[in-house]
Each structure stands twice: as C-alpha cells, then as structure tokens.
Design brief:
homodimer; about 120 residues; DNA-binding
DNA sequence: TTGACATATTCCCATATAGGAATGTATTAA
DNA sequence: TTAATACATTCCTATATGGGAATATGTCAA
C-alpha cells in the first residue's frame, strides 16, 4: 500500500509546507489566486493544484468574482488537528513539571556540596 | 518532485493514522512493542517501521529493558503542531460568532413575522 | 466576435511511501 | 552453547505525489 491520499483528511493535506503557507496567508483575508502566486512566490499551476487539495478536504472556501477566484481559509476544518494535539497538553505540562523538579534537585545538590 | 519524506517533520509523520494511534496509546504510559502490536492490532513489522519514523522525528523516545524496548510519546515534539493550529483559533472564534449572529437574526425575523 | 487575462487541468516523471513476507539481530533462559 | 523470545530490517510492489511545461477553460473588455 502507498501513502494515504493528500485529500484523505486535513492531517494529510496539511503535511505539505506550501499548503500550510497558503492556509496561513488566507487566514488573514480573502485573496485571489494571483495574489497567492505573487506573495508566496509559487508557480500558478502549483498554487491551483494546492488549492484543489485544500478545497477537497474543506480547508478553504472559494467564491468567484468575475475572472477572479477568491479563496479564504475555513479555519473550522483545522479544529480536528487542534483538538488532537490538545490531548497531549496535559502530558507536556507533566514533562515540563518534571524537568523543573529535576532542575531544582540539581540546584539543591550543588548547594549541599558547597555547604559541605 | 515527490511528496516530502514522512520523516521530514512531525506534520508528515503524523499524517499517517496508525502513527497517531500509536502516539495516543504511548501518551498514557510507556509500552513495549508487543503491547502496541496486540492492543492496536497492527503487524509487528509495521509497528516497528512506524516507530522508526516516529523516533526519527523525535515524537517518541525509547529505552531498552532486557529483550524489551520501551517506547513513550515525547509530547513536546507535538507542540509545533499545536501551535500552528492555534494561530487559527481567533479566526474560528470569529466565524463562530458570525454564525451565532446570523442565527440570532433569523430568530429575530421569525419573531417579527409572527408578531406582524 | 475576438483578444487578453485569470485559473484550472493534463501529461510526464523521479521519488517515497505502507503493507506483506521473509529474514536478521540482540538478549535472556536453560 | 543453544533455543526461544522480542524487535528490527530488507525486499518487493502498487500507488500517489509535486513540480515543470504545455494546454484548456472561463470571463470580461473592446
């Protein structure tokens, strides 16, 4: 079996750095394709292809304005990602706390050594 | 060019559903490979291969205990993902707020219609 | 209607998968 | 030392990719 399709879910769609750049760019405000091309310095066909992937998984929305297509990020589709990563929050707080503890123990030991 | 390597960063590593399952499983507590195999119902060679990818990007840590390898999730490596998705939080709050507004306007209209 | 502009799509290809099967390696127990 | 256990690695293959180049499609302006 090969890797899952980039359009299988947002996790796969977002694995490509350019697509993350596009999402970030389109989060601020609605933009036409040409603006993405110029601002991010990506070839137009590539941009169109990336946008198609993003559309397929619902990460962006489009509307037409004459000859222009206006894209914007659909932030809601990013929530599953955010929520999945959030399940680890408690864990990294623990790890941080333990690192802190160990640091404090080291300080304590050094203090003792100096006092001895 | 082909797709970026699964080991190029955590975004790519985490795109594979099995690997997310493994990370979630290993977040609760340190486990040996055999436990992952049995609990998640994945073939042993596949588990080993997924674990290698996760190790390569620092998403899991290992230590040996006799014949057993004990793996655990390194939650800290998930933070970049969490932080990237967080940049969209404000945006989806706006979108939610606007959806709420629209809903309220609809209620208002209905009320008016009933009163008229 | 035609030309120009804005996007989208198609074709080509080098590359990296993930799973299955088979095999290799390390460590312990007897 | 040897057998058994626990993992890791290799080989194979169907499949999907992303970029470049070329081309198609759609819409407006004259």
């Amino acid at each position: 079996m090969a890797r899952a399709s980039t359009t299988s879910d947002s996790f796969n769609a977002v694995a490509e750095p350019r697509r993350r750049d596009i999402l970030t760019y389109l989060a601020l405000q609605e933009r036409e394709v040409g603006e993405i091309v110029h601002s991010l310095g990506i070839e137009q066909p590539s941009v169109s292809k990336h946008l198609k992937v993003l559309r397929d998984v619902g990460l962006v929305r489009v509307r037409r304005n004459g000859r222009h297509m206006l894209y914007r990020t659909n932030a809601d589709a990013i929530r599953p990602l955010h929520e999945w990563t959030s399940t680890f929050e408690r864990l990294w707080r623990h790890q941080l706390a333990r690192a802190k503890e160990r640091a404090e123990q080291r300080v304590q030991k050094n203090t003792n050594r100096i006092q001895d």
